[in-house]
Each structure stands twice: as C-alpha cells, then as structure tokens.
From TrEMBL:
GO molecular function annotations of the record: antioxidant activity; oxidoreductase activity
Entry-linked PROSITE patterns: THIOREDOXIN_2 (PS51352)
Start and end residues of each Thioredoxin domain: 9-165
Name by which UniProt lists this protein: Redoxin domain-containing protein
Pfam families per record: AhpC-TSA
SUPFAM superfamilies, per the entry: Thioredoxin-like
Record organism: Thalassotalea litorea
Superkingdom field: Bacteria
C-alpha cells in the first residue's frame, strides 16, 4: 500500500526550482515570470487524456489578458510526453507556455497527488492531479490549491478577481494560511 502522506508545499514558502521542456523546444523554470510580469500562475494539469483539463486550459486562455493586467504570467505543465502534448494541441486553443515531461520526482516536489492510469487507453504513465500555484515577485507561494481529482479546482473568474484584489496595494492583503 502506498504511503498515506505526501509532501506538501505551504503558502509563504519558497517555490521549488523546477525546469520543464515546453512546446517549441525551450526549457522554462516554473515560478519564474516572463513577459514583464512579476508574478506567475503555475497550473499543473493531468494531461491530454483529461477532457476537464482541456476545458480548464482553454478557459484559462480567456483570462490571460486580465491576469496580465495585474502582472500575472501563466505557464501550465503535465507529465505528458512531447508527442502527447502535440496531439493534445489539436484540442487546445492557448498561447501561454505548455510544459511537458514533468517527472514523478518533480510531481512529488510540487506536492501534487499522483495517480496511475485506469488503462493504457487513458495514458501510459502516472500523472499529477490538478494543482495551482501563484508565485509572487520574491519567488514565494502566494496562493496554492492542490486537488486529488479533476472535479475540484479553482473557479477561474473567482481566482482572477481574487488575484486582482490581492495585487492592489491599497488592500495590504497578506499571504493566507501561514499559521503553524
């Protein structure tokens, strides 16, 4: 039987150093904003086999401009192979970076729940369940959400509204969930 405990990242902690390959052949470091932004939204998704992930990523694209206005960059990553990502692109309409090849060790470092496929038709590798991290300009985890299934993940409009509010200096909103 598998261990009943997983390593979890905590709000206010430093986001781990993890680099992934992205479509187009580059390597990108998760949690390192680009395009003039100082925060980054890191979305871990299950992979091409998950229709809910496809829907979520396509919906996330519609919020890209709103997130950019508040200084938040986007990257999404899965454990899929490059070939699986290429096949998935036929159902995705996104222009933010999509990473592939997330290893089991990297999934564990991120504190994601990891599942085995139900069959070879689903996918050919263990995969991370959905997770979302918002990394601030200090490389610290500002917001974190880790799920053990594809049915529970942050509603994107609420997330964008919340990040807009958090980023407003007039609100002086601290990182939440830091009580030990």
């Amino acid at each position: 039987m598998a261990s009943a405990y997983t390593q979890k990242l905590h709000p206010g902690s430093t986001f781990p150093t993890i680099s992934v390959s992205v479509r187009g052949g580059e390597t990108k470091a998760l949690g390192q904003p680009e395009n003039g932004h100082d925060w980054q939204l890191v979305v871990v998704y299950r992979g091409r086999h998950c229709p809910l992930c496809t829907k979520y990523l396509n919906q996330l694209q519609t919020f890209k401009e709103d997130l950019a206005k508040t200084g938040v960059d986007i990257i999404a990553v899965s454990g899929d192979s490059e070939a699986q990502l290429r096949e998935h692109m036929s159902r995705l309409d996104v222009d933010f970076p999509l990473g592939f090849g997330l290893t089991i060790e990297q999934m564990k470092t991120l504190g994601t729940f990891i599942s085995d496929p139900r069959s070879e038709q689903e996918t050919d590798h263990p995969f991370a369940e959905p997770a979302l991290y918002v990394v601030n300009e200090q490389g610290t985890i500002q917001v974190i959400d880790i799920s053990n299934n594809p049915f529970v993940r942050p509603e994107l409009q609420a997330l964008v509204n919340g990040l807009t509010w958090i980023r407003n200096p007039d609100n002086n909103y601290p990182i939440r969930g830091m009580h030990e």
